[in-house]
Specification:
By secondary structure, the chain is an alpha/beta fold. It is built from four helices and nine strands, in the order βαβαβββαββββα. The chain has helices at residues 13-30, 46-52, 106-117, 175-179, and strands at 6-11, 37-42, 61-68, 81-84, 94-102, 122-130, 143-147, 153-154, 170-173. It has a six-stranded mixed sheet. The chain has a three-stranded antiparallel sheet with strand order 1-9-8. Strand 2 (37-42), helix 2 and strand 3 form a beta-alpha-beta unit. It is globular. The structure holds guanosine-5'-monophosphate (5GP). Guanosine-5'-monophosphate is lined by residues 44, 69-70, 76, 99-107, 131, 152-154, 158-160.
């Protein structure tokens, strides 16, 4: 049913599994001997984080933080709002932020700086998707699933007006869907 609104699939379900296996193995290797806190940025991180952590073979903690920057449309807005803060201290901890997509880079720039300010020992980012052509702030995530062109995508956690997060793949929405609104 949702598929009728999708112009084309950019990252298939199978590709997402392979990406998570590859990133999970790399993270397991890099954090050997450490107990990182993996912080997912809600709501987009949910399916990606759930898939990724299956392949991370480490003692690690999982936390969630609510962050909003799109406010419903298809353009990233300049103000990054924390809608749900962490319930644990990051002081002296190795932090890995799990994000669905990096576009302008503002969200991760703000959140990474905030966690460093709160005393984190290290802060790195793992993102399913990277859209480098959208960058406004210089920011390079350490772990990238795949790079995509500057297009508005939905699925696997990514929404348009809170819909389409439940698609099992990442796709491009037909322009008529958002032109309608
Ligand atoms: P940034 O701060 O890097 O511009 O944006 C990060 C956030 O913007 C992401 O977590 C995501 O919520 C949203 N975002 C950026 N690009 C897209 C996109 O193509 N589709 C959707 N649905 N959200 C996006």
């Amino acid at each position: 049913m949702l598929e009728k609104d999708i112009e084309r699939i950019l990252v298939s379900e199978k590709e997402i599994t392979h990406i998570c296996q590859r990133l999970g193995a790399k993270i397991t290797h890099d954090y050997h001997g450490k107990t990182p806190i993996i912080i997912g940025l809600l709501k987009g991180c949910m399916p990606f984080m759930a898939e990724l952590i299956k392949y991370i073979d480490l003692y690690c903690e999982i936390e969630l933080m609510g962050v909003s920057s799109y406010h419903g449309g298809i353009q990233s807005s300049s103000d990054v709002k924390i809608t749900k803060d962490l319930e644990t201290s990051v002081h002296d901890r190795d932090i890995l932020i799990a994000e669905d997509i990096v576009d302008t880079g503002k969200t991760l720039d703000v959140i990474s700086k905030l966690l460093i300010h709160r005393g984190a020992r290290s802060v790195e980012v793992v993102t399913l998707l990277d859209k480098p052509a959208g960058r406004i702030v210089e920011f390079t995530p350490k772990y990238i699933g795949t790079t995509i062109p500057k297009e508005f995508v939905v699925g696997f956690g990514l929404d348009y007006n809170e819909l389409y997060r439940n698609l099992p793949y990442v796709g491009v929405l037909k322009p008529e869907v958002y032109k309608k609104n």
